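Run folding on both entries below.
>entry_1
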Amino acid sequence: MDNLESRLNQLSVLEERSEYFQTLHLEEKLGELRLVQRERQVLERTKADAENVAAALAALQEALSEDLAYLADTAVAELPHANLWTRLREKIEEGNADLKILCQKIAMRVEQLLSTIQYVESEWNTGRHAIEGRVYQVVASLPGLAGKSGEEIGREYGRVIQQVEALRPLAAKKRDATTLVRGAGRGTSQSAVRMACHAA
């Protein structure tokens, strides 16, 4: 019986806390934080992709060999197919020249992309700080939540809601037992209460 009463008292406290959360529209504000977190993931993915492109470009530029001395006329003059190696060197030189021009254009595009991402991140951070500021200003008044991250606040909110839902059936059982007591008289009272305690 004492255990049941204790849990019902706990339910009363949790319901009051839950109602306070609802008054502050905490669930809505936590939803905003979750959306901001999704935006963070989008930003981080975009930055990673752009950095991968920049790294691939750097690798390509490094792979464009400037040292073709092994194909110089003097190096292949005595070889039986010297004319083939000479033509190959010429094609490599032409290809390298074309690729260098392309790399320069790509490098400009990558630089523009990185600059745009930096601008977007700055603008997003301004909006993010505004949203987080509103949420944290609200939760600063909640006992035990001040200074906690959005994720921690979300877990606490979820814990309170889950506990309320888990304990509410006990309150319903107690009401049913009380109804039985009033209807059947004092003789049934102890039995009904014991049944409610057992079910809890």
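>entry_2
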Amino acid sequence: MTATAAGPVASRRRALLSETWRALRTAHPVRLLRLLRAGLLATVCATAVVYLVTATQGGQEVTTVRRSEEAGRRLADARRAVHTADEALRNALRTGQIELIGPGAGFANTTARIGTLLTAAGQGNAAGATGRAQFQFVQGKLLICQQLINTAVSDYPRGGPAGVESARDTLTAPRLRDPDTGRQIPGTGGLRASIEDLQDLQSAGLARQRDTGWLDPVRLWGFALAPPVVMLALFCATARILAIHFRRRVNGFLVATLAVTLAVTGVFAGLTLWDEDRLALHPAAGHPATMALVLLALVAAGVLNHLAHRPRLAEYRYPRP
């Protein structure tokens, strides 16, 4: 849109807003009450929509975080299993019969368990494409470690213990350090160091999961409180019209409508954050009983809103606009 065309459009918008405001100021009080009643009912419906979206999306995100937490525990088990595999290989080497017995059943069973743990942990990947690539890298490194160790054992008559010890480093070698800063370099070292890199990556992804989406308290409360804030503004407008044009105060039904809506908002937002804090297997916010109670309370708020306006509207028999 050009600057020449933008000017008339802005002028028309200002004129439309001015005309709408003038129409509202000169409208009959009964018409305004009907509009406010419809607006209050709309905010009750909006609260129901916000609750349903929060309960479903928040429950899904809690489930995702639970899977990521479980993946973190499996990675920790895999890291400890690397140490167990190293000890099993060392014990086999100490027997002096490694060329006959090989790495040993303990080593084979433990490395197989590491592979299973890595595969299971990959189901709860919290770091997106980078995490998937790192999982593939670690799984490939595990296979390389097994192959190098089996080769060193097969070549034991020629390489001796030194060959096996060199192959063992593929399991537990520490990360290399930057010669300038002395800091450890990610992506270097043995299998255990690679699993630690993967743990760091998953921990960062898990922290992002817990602080984004519907599990972010700021976003959750901001979205949840939007309908009640609008309702409060409409409540104040209704109170002003009743006081000025009808010489009446706000009745208890309208106060109850606002109170019920605020209570429902506080309950479902609090339940969602509670579910996130304890990583509930069955989130309370999305439980069928909770849904039934919340929706019944909002239906009651809609009925209370109707009862609050009926006495004043019944005083006039003008046709609906």
